[in-house]
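Table S7 (text form). Paired inputs.
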Amino acid sequence: MSVDPTKQRQSLPAPATWGTEGPNGLRDLILLSIAMFEGRDEEDVLHLAMAAVASLAPCTAEAGYLRGEDGWVRAPDERDGAPGTDLDDQVAALGAEDGIVRVPGRNWCEAIALRPAGTTIGYLVVSAATRISDEEHFLIRALAQQTSAALGNAAGRRAEREHASALRRAHHDRGKAIAQLRESVAELEFQKSVHEGLSQASAESEEGIADMVRAFTGLPVAIEDPFGNLRVWSGPGRPDPYPEPGLVRHEQEVHSGMRRAGPVRAGSRLTCIAQHRGKVFGTISLIDPGRTAGAHEEFVLDHACVALALEMSHQRRLAETELRLRRELVEDLIIGTDDAGAYARSEAVGHDLHGPHRVVVVQWEDKPTDAVADAVGRSATGLGLKFLLGRRSGTTVLAVQGAAAPHALHEAVAEALDSGAGSVGIGGRADSPAAFPRSYEEAVRASEFRRHSSTPEGATAYDELGFYRILASGEDQRKAEEFVREWLGPLQDYDAEHHTDLVRTLSLYFDCGGNYDTAAAVLMIHRSTLRYRLGRIREVSGHDLSEPDTRLNLHVATRIWQVVDASA
């Protein structure tokens, strides 16, 4: 056992009080025995024995030891000149037997083993200036026997106290275990009712699941598709109109939910992601502005999410089966289809048709259609576009959400195919599926315009054609190019031969309304330099810029030139 060095020792009367005329050994020993059995612990008993040594014989108690976990532990001793650690080593070497030890300055010193029941549990080390008499030695031995008995008694009381404490702990633990068992039974009963309720609700589709969750939690429930659009609301307080989450914020919430298992707190909502085999089908949320939802509510939401994921997965498989029996969604969109059916089918393939889209037509002259479609898909993904991809009449068709990035798409596809011999046409904005056929026709016209221009490789947006949209078809385009050549041909040849910019100068001059100062500033040349160039244009072209009809034809020709040679 360990000995607490801070423990206060039991005070012992001075030796003079033990006898009336010097030491009275037997009486002192009897009084000591009585004191030792007064409910003291082992350390107190040992201190009392050490204090009594001097009253029984002309001896000194050098040290007292009790058995500890790692060997013999010396009792605290505040006397001056207490033996050093050498005494500890000598006692340890005795092997639990009595023995003579050495203490500096003392002619006789003995370590007496304290054995209450045949097992040594301590030592009492006694010394004297000279060897003591047999009678005195008898009293010291008797003191050791009484100390051993008292130590055994103290150890027994300590064991009883520890046993009683262990019983109290066991009783407490038993009560706690019973309480936990009751809680577990109640929790299992609750979970069973949730499983049974959700199993029944699953047969009633998403509405049944939402109603069952509200019944268990008492909180409003919202089920949304993967894009944040409301599918089902159960309970009071439905917003009208329902707020559309920002795309970035919604995607952050979805990705956060996928990284963590179980419901995720997002503001006033506790949301769980309905996903199956790595696919996200939607979300189910408890509307909890007071943050009252606890473990039970999270359990209900988590298991409802599993049921919802299975239900949504089933619905998607049905939609995919329907897709296999019909044309590709993109082809249906550009031909024309109903809005509701288009939204449902696009959701099945993981695309949100809500919001503005543009149709993009891609053609490549020297590459197989499959290779082009694959390169377009990979390039659009790399550019971060959200799109649907299809094919029609040997071309690759994209339905792109938001901005189409046509020039970046052309560059990316050209790099992927290691060929720039392709054209990209972009149709006008389509705000609903019903507008896709018009956007497709515009994309085709823009692509044809690019392919029949003097620079067929690149991207052209229908919105950029301006008045030239009325000419953006094959035969009319050729006539337009002939018109440009008729009015600007000499200037184009002169620019090519002399590396000048007369056509560009004339074009910007007309765009600035014929204002010398404005045109000179745009061209970043001096006003006199502009006058010289315009004079040179008159000489080379043979046209008088002061004639209204001539000015009109030249202006139209430069506008067409701007569109045809935009990449140049």
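Next pair, protein 2 of 2.
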Amino acid sequence: MLYRRPFRPLQSFLILFFSITLLLTGLSLPSQAEITIGRSFDTAPIVLDGKVLFHISKLTEFSAQDRAKQANDSLAQAIRDFAAAQDSPAVPTVEVTPGPLPTLRLADRHLLTVTDRDVMLGKGVLEQAVEWQSTMNLAIAKGLKERTLTYRQKAIFNSGVAVLLAILLHCGIQWIRLRWRRQQLRTMQDTKRPLKLLGLTGLQLLVWGGAGYYVCELFPQFRTLLYLVLRSFDEPILILKEQEQGYGIVDLLIVMGLILGLWVIVRGLTLLLKARILPLLGVNRGLQDAIAILTQYVLTGLGVVVILQVLGVDISALLIVGSALGLGIGFGLQNIVSNFISGIILLLDRPIEAGDFVKVGDLVGSVEKIGTRSTELRTQDEVTIIVPNSHFLEKEVVNWNHSSSVSRLHLPVDVAYGCDVDRVQTALIESVSHHPEVLAHPQPQVQFLGFGESALNFEVLVWFREPRQQYRLKSDLYFRVESMLRQYEIEVPFPQRDLHVRSPHLEQLIDLLVQQRTENAPHLYYPDSVRSQSSPPPILSSPPSSPRSISRSSSPDINLVELVAQMKGDQGLNIQDRRHRLNIYPRCFVGSEAVIWLMRTQRATRKEALRIGRLLMRKRIIHHVLDEHPFDDAYLFYRFYEDEQQE
């Protein structure tokens, strides 16, 4: 299956948002006399065929909207009347009636009375009326021209050319899109191709938006409809009565676009500060993140205030709306706010930093990044877990790197009762001392914790420097401990219970049953290789009365010379050349067969037979043919040292 890298949601949203904002802003600019954010209720536009001619102000008795509506309706009706009269060659003109308050009239219809509030700075009332007269006459002449048959035919032709050009551009962009996608599927190396494809989609939207706008500008009816649509975006949806100003959709989009642009710039400056400047100052990774995030917050906040002030938005008026919205949003987003504040506390107090190895709740891992709402934690399985920041303040957090990376590791070890504790201590110290990751200072220690139900409880304490490697180090040390315990012949116990019976008759019965079971025990290991002969007399000075009678203290009671003679005699072990894989081992015997021979001839239990065999190895009478294993009840080859000397 070919790999397809998914689109990043944030990048996709930003590109689409900027495309739509640019399109709506570009379409709305021609319908506005000046580029401003927010709409004041003191003025209203005079519009003809979707073109804004000028703005008029409100009066004491009439609002600006009422005055503009009367003038716009009169202009539209006059244009319709003159366009319907095809036989009238004269073009209607707007006339100015002089006086203290000049009036503008069209075909005996009152359009507008010019007052002192309508006059721009440095102009008189009559001068302003004459200027508006000229503007309206040009608009009327253009409107009547656009309603002629010749103009309509030319407009239809230009519209067809514009649509055809848009189709060609759309097909060209689509061809580039398909070519890039084929290259991406072949190489699968360019990580920015999805972003480019989304940019082409935005470009196609701009092409069709521009073509549609051009076609609407050719026809007065379409231009009027486009003006009404764009005017709906400009209608106030957020009204500030204290400021007597309203903000429409386009205004909000422009503000959001500027804020997003500010965020992109601040983000770039923050990354530059974190990647280039702070490392030169020798700042550690955790402090770099804290400084970068706080710098981003401060610059973004100041930038938003400056943008709003430049656009003429009164911040004090927005505080009332912000406080009401904040009260309602606070209840619904209290968890997000809590995590945000927790993130600020983590950055300032720094109980954890990027790169620390921590444990919070049941999660253990390395801190990758401390964000505004959450912290990224990478576990030992290379899985990234997003943890809310509030968890680090509400729960107990274990930080192995907070003050020092040197930590102590605890290794519980249990051994069987009867083992020499000094020997156990020596074995445990020797097993962990030579590991390269265990520190020599402080030295490893072995503590005797106490007597358990089935074992002697010890604990090995070692110091190490890399907390992230503690689980691997613990496994390595346990491997070494197990190998050393086998080498020192120290048993690891299993849960057991001892039953003490004090009846002498019952003890005799148990000894008799044990003896009969030993004599009649089946040969479990390779019975075909064990010769069935009469058993020689046992060489132990006194037969053991219980399975525990043979131990290290009872080794002097065994006549090893006589035992070896019996083992090598006619009724002894099956000593012969043996083959394993492609190798031949001369004059050796099998460990499992030797255990069975000792159980049968010496009337010993399996455990006692193993102890006798290991005693022979310690006395350097027998050994494993490759010197890799101790004496064991298994299919392993052993040889007498005397046989090697004879060879």
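The CA atoms of residues 287 and 353 lie 8 Å apart.
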